[in-house]
Amino acid sequence: MVSVPSSERGRDTEPATDSSRQTPEESASTLTPAVRHEVLVNDRRRAIVELLDDETTLRTLADEVARVEAGGGDPDRKTRQSVYITLHQCHLPKLDEFGVVTYDADRKQVRPAAGLWAIRAYRDRIAEYTTRRQEAVSPLPYAGLGLLGIGGLLAGAAGVAPTASWVVAAGAFLGVAGLAGRAVWSERRG
């Protein structure tokens, strides 16, 4: 996480804006789904959301983002320069406009705004939801029971043990319905 000691900060910093005094919940209500998407859709903006904890300089933040892009290693000069320019010209002004950071382009200073905490909370909720969905019931039982049911229907239609085939098909149908009901029930509870 990027943090600049208070001794390195300028004494003439601007007072906090009203958006930086909002709670994450209040700020989240002002961040539309389109804004949240716009912030999180880009790798460099996601890195800024992840790294920025305190006021820092553009240079320090750009070096950290470049390090992330280099996989934690030392980035080359071209990568550092590219990150610096795009952060200055594109990403930080956009994040400032959205209320996620406060960016002073003249002094090259960046600090978190209330929207940053709201974006992090939203990102964490998405990660939690994705994890829960990945741990949900496997689709394999549905597929297996579906194939068993289709096999039973085909066997019944062909006249091979028609009564038993229809019982197998009906059982497979009820099994799929039961699994689906269980999945819906557990999703609503948890």
Structural class by sheet pairing and helices: mainly alpha
Order of helices and strands: HHHEHHEEHHH
Low-confidence stretches: 4-22
Tell me the radius of gyration: 27 Å
Helix content: 55-70%
Q: What is the CATH first-level class name of the largest domain? A: Mainly Alpha
Q: Give a quick account of the main beta sheet: strands, pairing sense, barrel closure.
A: 3 strands, antiparallel
What would you say the CATH architecture of the largest domain is? Orthogonal Bundle
Tally the structural domains. Answer: 2
The DSSP helix count reads: 8
Strand content: 5-15%
Task: Give the N-terminus to C-terminus distance in angstroms.
Answer: 32 Å
Name the average pLDDT: 79
How many β-strand runs? 3
CATH topology grouping of the largest domain: Arc Repressor Mutant, subunit A
Form type? elongated
Transmembrane segments: 140-160, 166-185
Biased composition (Polar residues): 16-32
Region (Disordered): 1-34
InterPro entries: DUF7344
